[in-house]
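$ ./design --mode recover --in tokens.txt
reading tokens...
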């Protein structure tokens, strides 16, 4: 078996919430995908990548300066650390002190390094700017979904909280349910359903909302129990799309749930309190708390 074939079989691991998908035989990667890969790194990984690249680049040029003989004035021949720190100064184009290139080799090498430093600084600045300027939605979903009575009907309930200190505009909410179903041929097939909500769009989304889906005869959840949900590997995906009013940019956040995250016969506790002055107090500390629902 060739190494190339092994690489194809190993594939690319992609996480989609609680799912882990392995993509194989996707073909050759585009070098431009590196840009998206870098932006998807966490901040510690991103800083580590830049620091490591900067260190390796200076090490390479330090070796080239060392093998160039007396190409740099006042640099002791074979002094690696002197060559390394001379490379650091050259890469940053901070100018020279008592060490400077004196031969054609030294001048060509410093010219190449200055060009690499100029382009590298531009790329690094662009990546950092994009990471800082990219808007993110500070949305928190409850850890669980509840199914309990609401207005006399069994209802799926899910809380969504806006953690920003200002309102989100034109917020849209969606909840999708998917499970395995048996076909007439006897095979298992994954079906996806968009659950109708009591409201799926708000002009402004300031604090905390409870998304509601009535489980009636038309609902794919009609008659569902914990056992049937587990047997069909039932899962849910909730999504919020809106506009950040400060940055004026669209943002999106989502959360997925498995059948293990569904609590039957429960509801979320009340977190809104009237102050008596026409104001409401919202207790974010109790966002995830549930309580047994009153029996019907």
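writing sequence...
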């Amino acid at each position: 078996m060739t190494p190339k074939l092994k690489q194809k079989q190993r594939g690319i691991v992609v996480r989609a919430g609680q799912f882990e998908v392995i993509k194989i035989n996707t073909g050759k990667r585009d070098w431009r995908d590196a840009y998206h890969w870098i932006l998807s790194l966490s901040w510690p990984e991103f800083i580590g990548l830049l620091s490591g690249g900067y260190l390796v680049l200076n090490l390479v040029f330090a070796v080239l300066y060392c093998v160039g003989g007396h190409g740099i004035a006042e640099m002791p021949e074979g002094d690696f650390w002197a060559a390394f720190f001379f490379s650091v100064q050259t890469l940053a184009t901070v100018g020279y002190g008592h060490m400077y290139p004196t031969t054609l080799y030294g001048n060509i090498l410093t010219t190449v390094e200055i060009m690499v430093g100029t382009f590298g600084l531009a790329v690094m600045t662009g990546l950092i700017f994009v990471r800082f300027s990219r808007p993110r939605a500070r949305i928190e979903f409850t850890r669980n979904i509840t199914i309990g009575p609401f207005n006399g009907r069994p209802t799926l309930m899910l809380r969504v909280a806006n953690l920003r200190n200002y309102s989100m505009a034109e917020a849209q909410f969606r909840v999708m349910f998917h499970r395995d179903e048996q076909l007439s041929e006897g095979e298992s097939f994954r079906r996806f359903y968009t659950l109708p909500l009591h409201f799926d769009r708000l002009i402004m989304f300031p604090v905390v909302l409870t998304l509601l889906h009535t489980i009636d005869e038309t609902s794919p959840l009609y008659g569902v129990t914990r056992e049937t949900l587990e047997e069909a590997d039932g899962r849910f995906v909730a999504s919020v799309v809106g506009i950040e009013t400060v940055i004026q940019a669209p943002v999106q956040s989502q959360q997925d749930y498995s059948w293990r995250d569904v609590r039957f016969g429960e509801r979320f506790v009340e977190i809104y309190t009237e102050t008596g002055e026409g104001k409401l107090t919202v207790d974010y500390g109790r966002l995830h708390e549930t309580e047994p629902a009153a029996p019907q």
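exit 0
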